[in-house]
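Much of what follows relies on a compact textual record of a protein's fold. A record is reproduced here so that you can trace the correspondence yourselves:
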Amino acid sequence: MENGDQVEEGGDRLALVTSPQGNIAIDAPMDGTITGLQTQEGGLVSNQEPFASIVDLEQLTVQLQVPDVQLDLFEEGNPVHVTLKAAEKEEHEATIEYVASTANEAGLFPIDLSFDNATTHYNAGVTAIVSLEETVVENALLIPTAALVEADDETFVYTVNDNTAKKVAVTVQATQSDLTAVKAELNKGDKVITSGQLTLADGSKISIIGGEE
């Protein structure tokens, strides 16, 4: 079989190898497409390297890396829309299979999606665009996502009140990366603290440095 040949269901004979112990049949252990063949007819084979590489192209994995502020948009088992660069006008559905709980060296969280390629036959390695349904909240109060504090099963922010920090409970309605829609006893123009708030308590004295809140 040549590189790129399709292995049929139930396994297929890849090669017959002659050894001092006799002929050894090498069969494919799974369905898939041969993407790497390390020898050719009449050549030598080694038991130190794989004889061939087989990839199942009927089920593709779409790999993403997202920042922590977008993790809430991904939940295992939920569907998302995928558009592959090979066919940008066609949108398909994929399923979120894995969401990492720890960041990689780049500070991003890996996410794996599964995509049924049995009828579309895309090649592995193509670029994909993932689309999520946007939650829109009408007439929402928007605050910087960085201002949110979560502790003891509650979510709150600190506002500036006469050089003291005032704790205000909030209910998150939707998170859009840098901004979050909330319900809270806040008024337009209230200043919320986005730096150092994790060390504050209700009534803490504060000083604003460089104009940052």
